Amino acid sequence: MNWKVWGLSKSPWVYHVNVGACNNCDIEILDCLTPRFDVERFGMLLVPSPRHADALLVTGGVTRQARPRLQEVYRQTAKPCIVLCVGACACSMGIFADCYHMAGPPDKVIREVDPNAIIAYVPGCPPKPEAIIAGAVKGLQAACKLLSQG
Amino acid sequence: MNPAAMIGLLFVAFAGTLVLGFVMKWVDRKVTAMVQWRVGPPWYQPFADVAKLLGKETIIPQNARRTGFLLAPMLGFAAVVVAATILWGVNLSPKASFVGDLIVVLYLLTIPSLAVVIGGAASSNPHGAVGASREMKLILSYELPLVLAMVPAMIAGGWTLKLGAIMTTPSPSVWTSVAMAAGFVVALLCVQAKLGLVPFDIAEAETEIMGGAFVEYSGAPLALIYLTRAMMLAVMPILLVTVLWGGFTFASVGGAIASILKYVLVIVVTVLVRNTNPRVRVDHAMKFFWFGLTPVALLAVVLALVGSAQ
């Protein structure tokens, strides 16, 4: 593992993008920052700008309104970055699968911009904070393996 | 001082301040975490942050002024390194001080704030522009009390502008001591604004203007900004202790322990102030610095004059 990948695995800064979630996953994400779970132990910080981010935390199925915005946010994120789809809607659209106002799950929308995007999934409605942390760790491990291969 | 020794000092001061800045950045985050009843990041966190940022893509916004945008972080970084070198040189051997080095240090430590203004204005981002304008207002408000707070030390040192002479002044009279203490408190609050910490993090204000002037930075320039801020966090307490609290001595064991305790105390007070206060509005900050702290600093100057007349 080279130093760049080591740095990425030890200090993933997170930008939170809500593209049409019901706010339940967002509450659970904020739970991860509270003293009980404290993700800063792993160097994770919530950053205010996608330019600073290493991980995009996407919640919700992508609405038609949010689709170009999500793609723009992904383009603006400094690479290498990983995408973490949190919640049932972000993984598979959940109960909104056939709704007229939906543009598809986030992974499909992001792959339209970058076919090689590194995407991890945390299912659940909403996922527990433990599940989000476990998902982030697994996603980061897989991403670091991919990145250190080149 | 011969050129070889000067270059050696530059490297020692750079590496020393860098490591010290990283450690203090960690202390900052760890103490913050402890105040909030959390565990906080491991000791190598700042190293990991910088390693990661150096390995990331650098994005330059389409409408940004390329030169100013990329030059600003380097300008701030270079200024902090030179200021740190002067302060280390003075503390390692007080005789190395030259006339007016206090003024040089104060000027050099203004440049990182100006670099923030340049970078924010060049980034073509509305949040960046707002951050730059707020930083400008902050500079206007805190520089006056900061410089005034240094004046009692100059008077006590016998009307001198040499850091070495100020440091080695024999213990002053009661009035002068009171004046120096008042100056120290004023300077500590100004440092809070200079470091961009709560309650004066108006120019960054992550929750309202998304990091202000830094919003468009990514990759290596952001790493430079991170380094600049870490080194400022290390350098400002050194300046305060050097000018207003007798400086550092490592000649004896007792002196070394006292020096380290002084330094840690300044940092911890700064971090505790940052953790127990909400962000103030920019006009409130200006009122606080101009009409709150400037009179206190003026009073300190008068007291120091009384002390020196005795």
Distance between the termini of chain B: 37 Å
The oligomeric state is heterodimer
List the strand order in the largest sheet of chain A. Answer: 2-1-3-5-7
Structural class of chain B: mainly alpha
How far apart lie the N and C ends of chain A? 11 Å
Tell me what you see in this structure.
- The complex is a heterodimer of chains A (150) and B (310).
- With 150 residues, chain A is α/β, with parallel strands linked by helices.
- Chain A has one domain: Rossmann fold.
- Chain A has six helices and seven strands, in the order αβαβββαβαβαβα.
- A five-stranded parallel beta sheet of chain A has the order 2-1-3-5-7, sandwiched between helices. In chain A, strands 4-6 form a two-stranded antiparallel ribbon.
- The N and C termini of chain A lie close together (11 Å).
- Chain B has helices at 3-35, 45-54, 66-92, 101-108, 111-122, 126-156, 163-167, 174-194, 206-209, 219-244, 253-275, 282-309.
- Chain B has one domain.
- At the A-B interface, helix 1 of A face helix 2 of B.
Give the helices and strands, then pairings.
The complex is a heterodimer of chains A (150) and B (310).
Chain A: H1 3-10, E1 13-18, H2 24-33, E2 45-46, E3 55-59, E4 62-63, H3 66-76, E5 82-86, H4 88-92, E6 102-104, H5 106-113, E7 118-122, H6 129-149
Parallel strand pairs in A: 1-2, 1-3, 3-5, 5-7
Antiparallel strand pairs in A: 4-6
Chain B: H1 3-35, H2 45-54, H3 66-92, H4 101-108, H5 111-122, H6 126-156, H7 163-167, H8 174-194, H9 206-209, H10 219-244, H11 253-275, H12 282-309
Spell out the key features of this protein.
heterodimer, A: alpha/beta, 5-stranded parallel β-sheet, two-stranded antiparallel sheet, 7 strands, 19% strand, globular, B: 310 residues, mainly alpha, 12 helices
Summarize this structure briefly.
The complex is a heterodimer of chains A (150) and B (310). Chain A has 150 residues and is an alpha/beta fold. Chain A has helices at 3-10, 24-33, 66-76, 88-92, 106-113, 129-149; strands at residues 13-18, 45-46, 55-59, 62-63, 82-86, 102-104, 118-122.
